What does this fold into?
Amino acid sequence: EAKRAGRAQHVIFDDKMHTQVHRRMQLENELRDAIGTDQLSLHYQPIVSLVTGEITAVEALLRWQHPKFGSISPAEFIPIAQESDMILRLGEWVLSTGCQQCADWQKTLGSVAPRQININLARKQFEDPNLPNDISSVLRKTGLPAEFLQLEVTEESFALNVNEAARTMRSIRELGVTLAIDDFGSGTASFAALNQFPVDVLKVDRSLIDNIEDSTGEAALLHGLVVMVRNLGIKLVAEGVETFEQLKALQELGCESMQGYYFARPMPVENLEHFLKTNMGLQACTTGAMAFAN
Ligand code: C2E
Ligand code: MG
Ligand code: MG
Ligand code: MG
It folds into this structure.
């Protein structure tokens, strides 16, 4: 009896694995063809200053609307693209589309145009020796001033070869483009790496923000980080802020900026443009207690 149950489980497991492998292969093939079609788009999520309440930047986040499966998360398809060189084509598309969009906003949105666009780089893109040249040619083609572009890299991108990574970062910054470390604190948070790398911003991972208002370990950690990066000239952006209590705690700790559902979700371009034209800043979304007392 037990044996039969065991075998049945085995069959179900194999079936599920088969489905997963099949979906993966299918997505890999179809993603290749989706690049350059309207199945792919960028959504934009505002980053807002905790000091002035103003929107200082927007992050471009890739979306895939699959004809059969519907919307597929980048958390699923980016790793698939990473396994082949497809990520390079995909990354190039994101970079040029995002930069073009930001350049267009300067013409169409006037004073509410975002002055910075944040674009995520995958590890393979970061390791590509052509990257600095590609960035500079995208800036030239789109006319976007270099200081309007910030690139986000995760720790996995420079874990392997610290010297090489630092060199790549320097050549990117020589273009006038700024750099952020994304998901900081989610992995083997390399505090030691901070003064080896010429970075402008640390984006503090959501996992560190989640319990911040309970004044436990996370708050102490973040306080230490705030003090430390101040001396290095690095700014902090808190990711995944979902409540007023978190916002308040971050403000008290001296964190410069935040990004999260509490202020705004990632939006398609039309919605973002409407949001930028009508938004009253952070002040308007803070209920009751004043986040900006003076
Ligand atoms: P990320 O770069 O850390 O982007 C932030 C993610 O957190 C986004 O997920 C965003 O929708 C989500 N988020 C923002 N605020 C909140 C919040 O308050 N609560 C919660 N629970 N989540 C929040 P998304 O768009 O699903 O993207 C996931 C990841 O996929 C990104 O994480 C990034 O690593 C990767 N990704 C997205 N677009 C690109 C791209 O164009 N290129 C590359 N290489 N990676 C990308
Ligand atoms: Mg990011
Ligand atoms: Mg992140
Ligand atoms: Mg992430």
In short: The CA atoms of residues 6 and 12 lie 10 Å apart. The mean pLDDT is 89. The two ends are 73 Å apart (CA to CA). Residues 2-34 form the longest helix (33 residues).
